[in-house]
Specification:
By secondary structure, the protein is an alpha+beta fold. It folds into three domains: about 80 residues, Immunoglobulins (Immunoglobulin-like, Sandwich), CATH 2.60.40; about 150 residues, no CATH class; about 180 residues, Zn-dependent exopeptidases (Aminopeptidase, 3-Layer(aba) Sandwich), CATH 3.40.630. The strands form seven sheets. It has a six-stranded mixed beta sheet, with helices on both faces. A hairpin with a 3-residue loop joins strand 16 and strand 17. The protein is flat.
C-alpha cells in the first residue's frame, strides 16, 4: 500500500509538471523598473487557469496568455497562482522618472560645421519623434547661438531656428572665413521628374516642407542676411518620391513620379530583425524574426508572380543593420520599401481586445496612401483586427527617395493574435494582403 501511495504521489507530481504554466515574460522575479506596468506573458497547459493578484487571466485555445499589472512607486508584490497549485511571487521596485526641465543657454552667434553626413536638423531639441526638418551634409556651414542639453540651436533666418546634436558639429574658433555667396539657380523638367538646382560658394542648411500640391525646399544663408531664404517650389504628382543631392557646391532638389507600370517597379522587402536580434517574443516562445522572414519570403514570391522586381534585404537568419537595409534598397533602385514586423507593447496597459491586430506605419507624406491600402488588405486577408495607420520615425522608412512603410502584421504578445500567426497559412495570408495593397496603390 505504501508503494502504491508513493506511485500515486509521483504520478500527481508528474501531472503537475506537465500542466504547469510557463512564463516567457518576465524572466526575473526581482525587477527594478521605471515603467508604469509589469507585463506577464506565457502559456498554460491542459485546462489550467491562471490568476495574477487574484485577477483571472484570459487563456487562448492554444494556452497563450498575457496580462499587465499597474505599478505604484516603491515595491510591488505580484502573486501568480494556477489551479494546479503552482504559486510564484514577483517583486517589482518602481522608481519614478524625474522630469527635469533643462533651460536654454544663450550665447553670441558662432560659426560651426557639420562633421558627418545625414545629420538631422530638428525643429525641437529632442532626439525622437517626427521633428526632423532635413538631413544635412558633412561640411554644412551653420550659425549657432544657444544650446539645450545635447543640442545646439541653429539660426536659419529672422524667424526660424533649428536644432542639431552637439556631437554632430564642430565649432569654428576663427570667424575670418568668407561669407557664403549665392551663385546660380536653374530648373529642369523630365518625363517623370522635375529638378531645381541652386549653387552657393559653401554648403548651407536647408529644410523640406511637403505641402498638399508641392514640395518646398528652402535654403538659408543667415550670415549673408537674416532675410536670405531661397525657396524652391516643385509641384508633386499623386505618387512621388523626392531626393536631395549635393554635387560640387550645387544642391539638386528632385521630385520624381513613381512609375505606373508594375513591371518597372522595384520593391524592397525587409524582414525585420534577424540573427542575434530576435525581436519580440510571443506567448508561446515564438521569435518575431522567424515569422517576419516567413512573411517576407511569401511576399517576394507573390510580387514576382505579378511581374514586380523584388529585392530582399535578408533571405536567411542574419544580423543586418538598419543602415544596411536602407543601403540595399537604394543600391537596387527601390521605388517601394516594405518592412515586415510583428508588434509588442512597451510601457502601456495590455488590453486583450485593443492591443491586437495589424497596424501600418509611415513617416513621409508620400507613403500614407500605401499604408492605408496595405492595412485594408492585410486585415481582410489575414483576418486581423484593424489597429490603424500611424506615423513614426523608424529609420528604414524615413528616406523619402522611396515610398516606405512598416507593417506590424499582428501582436506577438496577444493570445488571440497568437492563434492567428501560429497558423501555417498566416505568412501567406499576411503576404497576400501586403501584395494586394501594393498593387492597388500602384494602379490607382
Amino acid at each position: 500500500m505504501k508503494r502504491g501511495l508513493i506511485l500515486l504521489i509521483l504520478l500527481l507530481a508528474g501531472m503537475l509538471n506537465v500542466n504547469a504554466y510557463e512564463l516567457i515574460i518576465p524572466t526575473d522575479k526581482k525587477v527594478a523598473t521605471t515603467s508604469d506596468y509589469a507585463l506577464f506573458v506565457g502559456r498554460s497547459k491542459g485546462y489550467e487557469t491562471i490568476t495574477i493578484n487574484k485577477e483571472g487571466v484570459f487563456r487562448a485555445s492554444n494556452g497563450a496568455f498575457a496580462h499587465s499589472v499597474k505599478l505604484h512607486d516603491g515595491e510591488n508584490r505580484i502573486i501568480i497562482r494556477s489551479t494546479y497549485g503552482s504559486i510564484q511571487v514577483f517583486k517589482f521596485f518602481k522608481t519614478p522618472l524625474k522630469n527635469i526641465e533643462i533651460p536654454v543657454e544663450n550665447f553670441e552667434p558662432q560659426l560651426a560645421f557639420v562633421v558627418c553626413d545625414n545629420a538631422p536638423l530638428r525643429s525641437t531639441p529632442v532626439d525622437a519623434g517626427l521633428n526632423r526638418m532635413s538631413h544635412l551634409f558633412q561640411g554644412t556651414r551653420l550659425i549657432i547661438n544657444g544650446s539645450k542639453g545635447d543640442f545646439y540651436r541653429v539660426i536659419l533666418s529672422k524667424d526660424k531656428v533649428g536644432w542639431i546634436e552637439k556631437k554632430q558639429v564642430r565649432i569654428e574658433e576663427s570667424s575670418c572665413s568668407e561669407v557664403p555667396q549665392f551663385l546660380s539657380m536653374e530648373s529642369k523638367r523630365f518625363k517623370n521628374a522635375m529638378t531645381q538646382s541652386i549653387s552657393f560658394t559653401d554648403k548651407l542648411p536647408y529644410t523640406i516642407e511637403d505641402c498638399d500640391k508641392e514640395i518646398i525646399f528652402r535654403v538659408y544663408n543667415p550670415e549673408y542676411s537674416e532675410e536670405s531664404v531661397y525657396n524652391l517650389n516643385i509641384p508633386k504628382p499623386e505618387k512621388y518620391v523626392h531626393i536631395v543631392t549635393l554635387n560640387d557646391g550645387t544642391y539638386n532638389f528632385k521630385v520624381k513620379k513613381v512609375t505606373e507600370n508594375i513591371k518597372d517597379v522595384v520593391v524592397a522587402v525587409d524582414a525585420g530583425h534577424g540573427g542575434s536580434e530576435k525581436g519580440a517574443i510571443g506567448c508561446l516562445g515564438d521569435e518575431e524574426k522567424d515569422i517576419n522572414l516567413s512573411i517576407a519570403a511569401e511576399l517576394g514570391k507573390i510580387l514576382e508572380s505579378k511581374g514586380i522586381k523584388v529585392v530582399q534585404t535578408r533571405e536567411y537568419d542574419a544580423n543586418l543593420s538598419l543602415d544596411d537595409r536602407v543601403r540595399i534598397a537604394r543600391e537596387n533602385g527601390a521605388d517601394i520599401f516594405v518592412s515586415i514586423h510583428l508588434n509588442s507593447i512597451g510601457n502601456a496597459p495590455f488590453d486583450l481586445h485593443k492591443t491586437r491586430g495589424t497596424s501600418v506605419y509611415y513617416y513621409n507624406n508620400n507613403s500614407e496612401k500605401l499604408a492605408q491600402s496595405v492595412l485594408k488588405h492585410v486585415t481582410r486577408s489575414a483576418n486581423t483586427h484593424d489597429d490603424g495607420v500611424k506615423t513614426a520615425s523608424f529609420a528604414v522608412i524615413r528616406p523619402a527617395d522611396y515610398v516606405g512603410i512598416l507593417v506590424e502584421t499582428a501582436y506577438m504578445i496577444n493570445p488571440l493574435d497568437s492563434v492567428l500567426y501560429r497558423d501555417n497559412k498566416f505568412p501567406h495570408k499576411a503576404a497576400k494582403g501586403i501584395a494586394d495593397g501594393i498593387i492597388e496603390f500602384l494602379k490607382k
